[in-house]
Specification:
heterotrimer; A alpha/beta (about 70); B mainly alpha (about 60); C alpha/beta (about 220); A: about 70 residues; alpha/beta; C: about 220 residues; Rossmann fold; 2 domains; 3-stranded antiparallel sheet; 8 helices
Chain lengths: ~70, ~60, ~220
């Protein structure tokens, strides 16, 4: 298990969380490299199927931020 | 969100693997916190049992 | 419209236990508009089944398809290739669709993924209330346009029973379902047709309903 590096998927709204993630970057904050950020025009674009597909494809955790 | 969590539970996956957060564009710090929290949560829950990606499974097999 | 609800995932899983390749077949008509068996619900169920069967260690190949109307052969013909490739079909249609599929593709078993629950009206977002029981002998002209067959718990035809209290039916535990006979009274009063209630409605002829078995309509003018 020590080798387990989780793959976390973030669905981020262009105007809120994506900008926040961008800011986190420009502030040189460090956060785990396990998180991959997916850019959405708005969290309203999130669909049940996107989330299910993410798990189907093997994501260990998924979060929606907006 | 709750509906999807219910679907996951019904399917046999931990609903805690999914979460929704609200934050503004000014909350860079909060984003980093959330990213850490979700990574930690995934670490605790262990790998998604559906994963068949070689990158993850091979080292685990090597371990056994 | 015809409304239906999805069966529990466990039940669906047990129905397809012996199959390896499964086709989830939706219907683009009634069950699409009541969010039970349209393209989206097909994708969600297929995704759940792919994950759940993999978790159970007996991964299945789950395909998805939605036809425009599963109760008609012409539409289901478009699914022929998919059906041929599958060991079993889960139909997300009403009971008519499931039976049409079984008739049309007798070599493959089509199992129901939905429970068909009635002829209902969407009264608000996410709520469907039964309005018609297809009794085959409509009385809506006598009752101010409110159906006592479908909406009275006892299908009474000559006014309310003693369980109608302050406009609420006694049958439902939550005590919030209106007594349709109370509603009929108020509607007829508003229309100035209360005299209609003085007419005694004789025992209903149920032979147009379920009495005598399956019903069949034959229109000679339409037949080829």
């Amino acid at each position: 298990m020590s080798e387990f590096e989780p793959q976390v998927l973030a669905f981020a709204c262009h105007y809120c969380a994506y900008a926040a993630a961008d800011l986190a970057g420009s502030m040189r904050l460090s956060y785990p490299p396990n998180v991959k950020v997916l850019h959405l025009p708005c969290t309203g674009k999130v669909d049940v199927l996107y989330l299910l597909r993410a798990f189907e494809k093997g994501a260990d955790a998924v979060f929606v931020a907006g | 969100m709750n509906y999807t969590k219910k679907l996951l539970a019904e399917t046999g996956l931990e609903p805690e693997r999914l979460e929704m957060f609200f934050l503004s564009s000014a909350e860079g710090v909060r984003f980093a916190e959330i990213a850490t929290e979700m990574t930690e949560r995934a670490r605790k829950l262990g790998p998604n049992p559906l994963k068949n990606g070689k990158a993850i499974e091979q080292p685990m097999e090597a371990e056994e | 419209m015809i409304v239906a609800e999805q069966k529990p995932l466990e039940e669906i899983k047990s129905m397809i236990a012996d199959a390896r390749k499964v086709l989830v077949l939706g219907c683009g008509t009634c069950v699409t508009v009541c969010f039970a068996g349209g393209e989206k619900e097909v994708s969600i169920l297929a995704s759940q089944l792919r994950m759940a069967t993999r978790l159970d260690g007996q991964e299945k190949e789950i395909r998805e398809l939605t036809v425009q109307r599963q109760c008609e052969y012409e539409y289901n013909e478009l699914a022929a290739d998919h059906v041929r490739d599958a060991d079993m079909v889960i139909s997300l249609a009403c009971g008519i669709g499931v039976q049409t599929m079984n008739e049309q593709y007798p070599e493959k078993l089509t199992v129901p993924g939905l429970n068909t629950s009635g002829l209902s009206q969407p009264t608000e977002q996410g709520v469907w209330e039964e309005r018609c029981q297809a009794c085959g002998n409509c009385v809506l002209h006598l009752t101010g346009g409110l159906c006592p067959v479908a909406r009275c718990a006892k299908s009474l035809l000559n006014g309310p029973c003693g369980g109608s209290q302050r406009g609420i039916c006694e049958v439902y535990a939550e005590r919030e379902t209106p007594c349709v006979w109370d509603q009929i009274y108020h509607r007829l009063k508003d229309l100035g047709q209360l005299d209609k209630l003085l007419e005694i409605e004789p025992a209903k002829n149920w032979h147009t309903s379920r009495d005598g078995g399956q019903r069949k309509i034959v229109r000679e003018d339409l037949r080829l």
